[in-house]
Target: CinA-like protein
Amino acid sequence: MSAEIICVGTEILLGDILNSNSQFLARELADLGIPHYYQTVVGDNPTRLKQILAIASDRSEIIILTGGLGPTPDDLTTETLADFFGVPMEENLDVLEDITRKFAERGRQMTPSNHKQALIPKGAAILPNPSGTAPGIIWHPRAGLTIMTFPGVPSEMHLMWEETAVPYLKSLGWGKQIIYSHTLRFWGIGESALAEKVAPFFHLANPTVAPYASKGEVRLRVSARAPSQAEAQQLIQPVVEQLIQIAGTDYFGANTDTLSSVVGQLLKDANQTISVAESCTGGGISSMLTNIPGSSDYFLGGVISYHDSVKTSLLGVKASLLEKWGAVSKPVAKQMAGGVRSLLGTSWGLSITGIAGPGGGTEAKPVGLVYIGLAKPDGKVECFKYQLGKDRSRDAIRHASVCNALDRLRRRLEGSRE
Amino acid sequence: MSAEIICVGTEILLGDILNSNSQFLARELADLGIPHYYQTVVGDNPTRLKQILAIASDRSEIIILTGGLGPTPDDLTTETLADFFGVPMEENLDVLEDITRKFAERGRQMTPSNHKQALIPKGAAILPNPSGTAPGIIWHPRAGLTIMTFPGVPSEMHLMWEETAVPYLKSLGWGKQIIYSHTLRFWGIGESALAEKVAPFFHLANPTVAPYASKGEVRLRVSARAPSQAEAQQLIQPVVEQLIQIAGTDYFGANTDTLSSVVGQLLKDANQTISVAESCTGGGISSMLTNIPGSSDYFLGGVISYHDSVKTSLLGVKASLLEKWGAVSKPVAKQMAGGVRSLLGTSWGLSITGIAGPGGGTEAKPVGLVYIGLAKPDGKVECFKYQLGKDRSRDAIRHASVCNALDRLRRRLEGSRE
Model:
């Protein structure tokens, strides 16, 4: 038994809109434990929609359609369904009354084309639309097959799904087995390196373990199928513990944790504060730290020392060092971190200086060269050097640099020497 | 002749990620004039992917696949393609060398699983990936059928599409009737207000005019179909001029322009510099300004004055003002802007202080209250007050505040009194 999703709309095929309905429905089906293997997008074209219905009704038992329920001539989903299954359309008086009332309430003129929305295949039940004029249907055109239709407007679709479709699917026995997931997040290790470390876990059946990578961060998603969240968590817990143990300090958090939320919590726990001095990232670390509500508890502020004059005047970086080593260097990164820590009187001082590109690189100091300085509560200052790939964009280099800096701070706050 | 898109990835079926690749490719195919009638999503499952390939290769002449090219065991797109068409896989030494070099450059250890990424079906050509390790292929497994594969990572896929796929498709004769678009960008006016002002333009046939809105920015996309870009531009130009005229100062730029790139160009043209003092946006203005390559020409630096002590010690905001009016107030915003301008010796000083939420709001100063200070080259300081909707997220309030600040600076640089 499985479900599939068909989104109908030429505007999706033209790339005019992002298909967020598929993602919403995919997540909802997962939560209900309904297996779901295919998603299709097709235009407002009856012939092609019928071809898709032939394929889908052959391989799935629940077909969920969105789009094509509106009043205009290119909205053809309902009549194409009736035609495909060889069933006539009937005017539904309850729907007609509902549409008429909604138009009156909104002080709008009902047009003849709105009457079309009251036509549904004979034998189908109405899937009410509380917030719009176009209702959907729940229909069993033949034994073992369920069709559900929704308008393409996401807000209307969501409400109809929650109010009618979910209770209906639960009444059929779904939602007894749920899929519950726990995501582990890693920084400082590549996807393939982590995947090799935890390779045996990819063969587990319940829970399953799958890797993902995005913008330098690697994730492992541990998903269990069970009758309840508590039971799913019981299946997940030992696997999660083993994965964290194997990954070591590259693991930084779970689910909605971010590097900045984790660093923030560690600073709060330690009753410590931080300030930041940024060059190439131009406010990126500060911006990420302050993205966390309540960050004023530990983040006092920072200096964007984009021009060298700001490094000397505000951060106390010696002009002789800048001249000898250049702005992108270990000594300058260290003085920036120590300087901002003193200036703002914080426990920690974190600095970045580097070459984000695309210009500004040299043979000796190529684009992607980044130094991170970390002044610690005891006054000592460390420095970390990175050479990010030259082929990466300015955006990517800045983002990775911000995350590397936060990650270095995290490791020290956790007491790691790595 | 038509193309179709197949996105491979269980993470899409689970609803973990939004399928933005389909939208990108759909728009690109439209621009090239290549008909495209179907999009499919399928999981990392060879049996089901083969079923989809059977359907797709029967109805389309170009099949574009994204996802499943990574190094982990669940990345199966390439080998499933080879298996489906009954062709052996071969190690491509150029690809192996390229992957080896990229790992070396990043100082990362290459693992045996990365070798897998150098295996391609015999007879397929490489579709190079300049920014990642996984290359794609361009392959004619049989006469009249073209297969192209891309990694699922959007940034890598976009670059590969633009650098190799587009020239290839053009060499096959596509893109002769091209769709050329010019996007006008607006800040400071809502979508419906702008739409009403330019309503008659929405009925044009060639070029067409369509509105979009995203994160407070409104865009009008003017698209013409013509045999060449020059001819399309001729159709577009008079419409663009009229739209800009009607919109007035709310129009800030076109196509890839951003508020920060426009402000940067205006500062460069005027040979002026800027510094920034930020509280609630925590580095967001600085980060956006320095996202532009070459921004060191006009952006000297800034102060993140998150804690009030930083406002007094670095920016010279009087403690008495903070006590009397509070940190989120017109007098404090003005002293912050004047203070950072003096401190860094720049032509302009831009400041923000506000309540980003979700906590910290009061009856008198609700979440979303933001003051923007602008110290001008003549030493005078202006202040602008915003009350952003209380129902907006912290992220949204911070983003809108950064854009409002840049937009105020833009209007002054353009000499507008609005």
Q: What stands out?
A: The first strand of chain B starts at residue 3 and ends at 8. The radius of gyration of chain B is 26 Å.
